[in-house]
Amino acid sequence: MTENPPVGTDLPVLRVAVLGAGTVGTEVLRLIAEQGEDLAHRIGARLEVIGVAVRDLTRDRGEFVPAGLLTEDAGALVDDADLVIEVMGGIEPARTLLLRAMEGGASVVTANKALLAQEGAELYEAADRHDVDLYFEAAVAGAIPLVRPVRESLAGDRIQRVLGIVNGTTNYILDAMTRSGADFGDALASAQELGYAEADPTADVQGHDAAAKASILASLAFHSRVRLADVYCEGITEVSAQDIAAAARMGRTIKLLSIVERVEDESGERISARVYPALIADSHPLASVSEAYNAVFIEADAAGSLMFYGQGAGGAPTASAVLGDVVSAARLRVRGGMGPRESRYAALEVAPLEELRSAFYVSLTVEDRPGVLAEIAGTLSGRGISISTIHQELGRDRSADGPATAHIGISTHRALESAMTAALDEFSSTVTVLSIDSVLRIEGD
Ligand code: NAP
Ligand code: HSE
Q1: What's the pTM?
Q2: Same structural domain for residues 278 and 137?
C-alpha cells in the first residue's frame, strides 16, 4: 500500500486557474490560501493558483485575491492550467472556456448550474473525449452534499424521488411572507436589502434557478438526460398574502418545491421534473425550513428516505462544495483514474405535466347567489375532480353596485393536470366565476 507522501517542497504542483472572483470565487481563493497545507496533505500535491480571471482589473478584492494574479485573458489562463475552477456564472464565455480547458487536458470544477442545465451534454462529452473530470457539487444547493450522494453514494440503489427546497432566495421570501403577512413585493424588497436576493431577482423568483438544479438532479438520479427545457417551472411571483393566509388556515405552508420522480403509468416508466410553489402540511419537515436554508429529501428503494439540510447559497458555503470537488479532481490527477462520467443509459422520457396527477388548491371570486357552489362543484365533478375541502368568505364590499361576491377556496383530491386545466377554462368562461385568483398544488401528503 502506498502512503500519502509527506508535505514538502518535493510535492508535485497542480496549476489552478480560477475563473471569477465574486461572491464564491473570493471565498474559494481564501480557502485555498488558508488551508493550503491541509489541502496538500489530502491531495498529495500543492495547489498553485496561477491566475484569476475577472472583468474589472482595477477593483480591490481583498487580501486573498492579489492584484498580480488578476487577468482579463481567461483563455490564456485556462491553457496553462491542470485544474480550472469556474465561478464566473452565465453561459458564455464560461461554456467556451470550459470546453477549451478540457480540450487542453485540464479537469474542471464548476458551480454553474445554468450552464450545466443548458449545455451539460456538451460538457460531459468533452470531458469524456479528453479524459478529464467534470465536477459540479456546488451547482446544486451550495454547501449541501447532494450531487455526490446521488451520483456516487446511491449509485447502487434505485432512486424514486428527489423533493426539496433548492433555492434560498425564494425560501427567504416565502418565509418572510408567512411570518409577517407581507405581500410578495415587500418581502422581495426586504430580501434584496439584506443581500439574499440579487438586484435582478428574475432567475430566483421565476423558478429558473430551482429548475436548473432540478434538471441536474433528475439527470443524475434517473440516468437520463433531462434538460432545463424539460422541467416544468412556475415561480413565486403570483403567490399572494391571501394564499399564504389560506394555506395557514388549512394547516399548511407554501414552499417553492423542486420535484423529480419516476412515474409509471400506461405510458410506461418516465420521469417527472417540476418546480412550483406548493402547499405542504405544517407537520412536513420541509415546512419548518426557514430563511434562506435549503432542504432535500431523497427516496430510494433500499436506502429509504434521506434528508439533507443546510446552506444552499453564500460565498463560504458554496466555496466549501467547490473545494471538495477540487480535492477529488486533484487527487485523481495525482494518482490517476477518472471520476464519475455522465450516466444516461436509462434514457427515460420526461412526462408532460398535463399527464400527471396532483392535488390542488384553487381560489375563486364568484357571484354570491343561489346555485353558484353547485355550478362550481358540477364543473369539477364533470372533469372527475373530487373536492377535499371548501372554504367560503363573503366579499368585503357588499354595499357597492354590482353583484355581491364571495371568495371560495377549494382543495381537491389528486386529479389529472389536464382535467384541472379544462375545469379552469370552464370557470374562465362562466359569468358566475368573476376571477380565478390562484391555482396552487398540494404536495407531500
Ligand atoms: P458573482 O459574484 O457575480 O461573481 C462573478 C465573477 O465572475 C466576478 O468576479 C466577475 O468579474 C467574473 N466574471 C463574470 N463574467 C466574466 C467574464 N466574461 N470574464 C471574466 N470574468 C467574468 O457570482 P457568484 O455569486 O460568485 O456566482 C458564481 C457562480 O457560482 C455562478 O455560476 C452561480 O450560479 C454559482 N453559485 C453561486 C452561489 C452564491 O451563493 N453566490 C451559490 C451556488 C452557486 P468582475 O468581478 O470583474 O465583475
Ligand atoms: N440564488 C440561489 C439561491 C443561490 O437563492 O439559492 C445560487 O444557487
Answers
A1: 0.95
A2: no
